[in-house]
Structures are given as structure tokens and as C-alpha cells.
Amino acid sequence: MGNTFTQGGATYVCSQCRRRTRYTGAQSLGSTLCAQCWDLAGLENEVSDGFYSSNEARRRAEVLIAEVELRGGSANSWRTTFGLEVK
Ligand SMILES: [Zn+2]
After folding, report:
1. Residue 7: is its pLDDT beyond 80?
2. Rounded to the nearest whole angstrom, what is the distance from the C-alpha of residue 23 to the centroid of ligand 1?
3. pTM of this prediction?
4. How far is the CA of 77 from the centre of ligand 1 (A)?
5. How far is the CA of 47 from the centre of ligand 1 (A)?
6. Range of the domain at 44
7. Which of 8, 38, 39, 79 is 20 to 30 A from 24, comparing alpha carbons?
């Protein structure tokens, strides 16, 4: 995939949920994730580091996943990651 991203307001397609998004400052520069997928990836890391119980992580993941889907993204891979029911 070509990287047509330029800094400052350009949009790009999130590599996880496939929706078109833009940098909000929440993500690292060079990230190919939208803000919600960025948070979900961070959550996944925190779970594997033992920072969250899986129930707590699942509740937080559900909120982020709902936001992704509300905005037209596909979050089934995240549902699988966090052990949620795939729609
Ligand atoms: Zn995304």
C-alpha cells in the first residue's frame, strides 16, 4: 500500500477498522490506526502486561468498539481479540 499520508489534516484509512480517519494527536505520528483502534491496541498491551483484568478490559474495549462501529468501521477483529461476541 502506498503511503499518501501527509502531516496536518490529511485523512487515511485505519489499518484495523478500515474507516477513513485523521490524526487527532492521540496516536503516534506514523500510526496507521484511528484514535479508537490506537486505544484498543494500547488496551490489548495493558491486558498482556497484566495491568487490567480481562473483565475490566472487555468493558473498556466495548465502549471503544461501539464508537468505531458507530463511525462506520469494522471492529470484529477487536471483538475477537477481547473475547467479545462477533457481530
Ligand atoms: Zn480504526
Report:
1. no
2. 11
3. 0.82
4. 11
5. 19
6. 34-82
7. 79
